[in-house]
Amino acid sequence: MVAIAYTVAFEGVEGRLVEVQASVAAGLPSFAIVGLPDKAVSEARERMRAAFNALSIAIPSKKITVNLSPADLPKEGSHFDLPIALAVLAALDVIPAESLAQLVSLGELALDGRLVQVVGALPAAMTSAEDDRTLICPASCGAEAAWVASVPVFAASHLRQVIDHLADRTQLSRATPGQVSPPRHRGDMRDIRGQERAKRALEIAAAGRHHMLMVGPPGAGKSMLAARLPGLLPPLSPPEALETSMIHSVAGLLEEGGIPRHAPFRDPHHTASMAAIVGGGRGAKPGEISLAHNGVLFMDEFPEFSRQVLDTLRQPIETGEVVVARANAHIRYPCRFLLIAAANPCRCGYLADPARACARVPGCGQDYLGKISGPLMDRFDLRIEVPGVGLDELDLPPSGPTTSELALRIEAARDRQRARFEPLAADGVRARCNAEAPPAILDRIAAPDADGKALIRRASERLGLTARGYHRVLRTARTIADLAESERLTSDHIAEAISYRLPFITGG
Predict the structure, then answer these.
(1) 114-153: buried (b, 16+ CB within 10 Å) or exposed (e) per residue?
(2) Fewer CB within 10 A of the end CB, N or C, for the chain?
(3) Quick check: helix, strand or coil at residue 77?
(4) CA 465 to CA 180: how far, in whole Å?
């Protein structure tokens, strides 16, 4: 007899249905798992033996074969334990085989039969809903999977409960969704003394999702400014929250089944490898750029990242997705993030300070910021210098709008952008913010007036703007106009946008 159970294998954030076939036949006693299992899947037979023994279920001295179909799809992870155990139990007539026909299961088995939390419950629930199947998962995963309301989700803490449920002895209760994760408050914009230009640039970056580079000496407040950016961003829409949570589910980062409605904020260290930033490594896991999807990626000490890591960012910034290529698979992850980079003007950090200037000025600054390639630098819409703050400025009372007040202005600007782009969806435009607007529609949504057009032409000639740089200036100006509640794009908006692309004092 061959019994069949179902589970999922993950390809990025997508789940593929896997058929778990179990055969118990006469022959020399053995237990084989085939179908490209990794080490964790192959070890499932030992965990299953111990769990069965804890439940006083005897495994006969026969030839047991478990096949994971499709056999050419790599199977990774300990979540295959439960479906393998259920398929074998059905083959031994412990549970009815027909009870598994419309069921997807996942979970790791402890040696005493407990079900241990695994990653990927949310994508597994999405796959189950697409195939109109029920999902059984560990109790610790139930709150996460239950966010997919279109699929019945049953959460069990022990294998005995699953067996009793499938044998119609006792029924498992339906899992309920977890709580919406609260945002983490990182301070108020009014707490920052001085840096009015930097705060204005942050407002523009948040309103239009424009990438931003800050250059300034140590202690000027670059990290403090970036840390307050998540508070300026509007809450994620339900589709955006689901997209982000599926990535975090595969990475095992959802806490207690809660789904966040606030934008993620990722700040990797400059020693992070390319696999950690872009994705890859064992299991082709999502990298920091994907974990920051629909949120903020803050890269402090930007020139200290390896050149290979920095140049790898260029394509994801343009396309909003990254493909992790492997010999047997191509994993695609979304990565539409807002990049905020911070850098010192040189290695010592005090290039513009006459009291501390070194003998290598200005060459040290040019060499240091020269680690950022021209094509990558061209992708920053906002490039600003953040000067040091004097002691007199620290004694000044708080000034300027609060984070809440700025957030309201930014949300209003986002609403105007949403209303602008929604009618264009029928033409294949998938933009949500001004920074995502394709060049083909800029003459319709960001056409400057006569004075503005003359100004941007003169600036293009003097600054040597590339075609990409020209389009980015128009997108930034469109965001500035949205913050000013102006439908027309004037020379004032163009002038402010151009001011954020001027060369640094190092010549970078």
Answers:
(1) bbbbbbbbbbbbbbbbeeebebbbbbbbbbbbbbbeebbb
(2) N
(3) coil
(4) 44
Instruction: State the DSSP string of 11-57.
Output: ETTEEEEEEEEEEEESSS-EEEEESSB-HHHHTHHHHHHHHHHHTT-
Q: Give me the domains of the chain, ranges plus CATH numbers.
A: 2-166 (3.30.230.10), 189-390+399-499 (3.40.50.300)
Give yes or no for a contact between 61 and 29, defined as CB atoms under 8 angstroms apart: yes
How far apart, in whole angstroms, are the C-alpha atoms of residue 356 and residue 374?
A: 29
* Beta-bridge mates of residue 116: 108
| CA atoms of 21 and 7, how far apart (whole Å) | 11
User: Coil, helix or strand for 180?
Assistant: strand
* The token pair that represents 352 in the structure block: 């513009």
Alpha helices in 251-362 (DSSP H): 274-278, 288-291, 307-312, 314-319
Stated pTM of the model: 0.90
CA distance 126 to 108: 20
Strand spans (E) along 346-491: 382-385
Distance CA 268, CA 305 (A): 10
CA-to-CA distance for 231 and 244, rounded, in angstroms?
17
Residue 30 neighbours by CB distance under 10 Å = 11
- For 442-470, how does the pLDDT look when each residue is reduced to its tens digit (9 = 90+)? 998 999 999 999 999 999 998 888 899 99
Q: Which two tokens stand for residue 358?
A: 């070194």
User: Per-residue pLDDT tens for 329-350?
Assistant: 678 899 999 999 999 988 887 7
Nearest alpha-carbon partner for 330 in 76, 134, 74 = 74
- Other C-beta atoms closer than 10 Å to the C-beta of 304 total 16
Give the CA count within 13 Å in the CB-facing half-sphere of 56.
0
Instruction: Return the ∠ at Cα 333 (arms to 330 and 335), rounded to 5°.
Output: 145
CA distance 105 to 213: 46
Is-contact 506 350, C-beta < 8 A?
Answer: no
Residue 407 tokens, joined: 């957030």
Three-class DSSP category at 17: strand
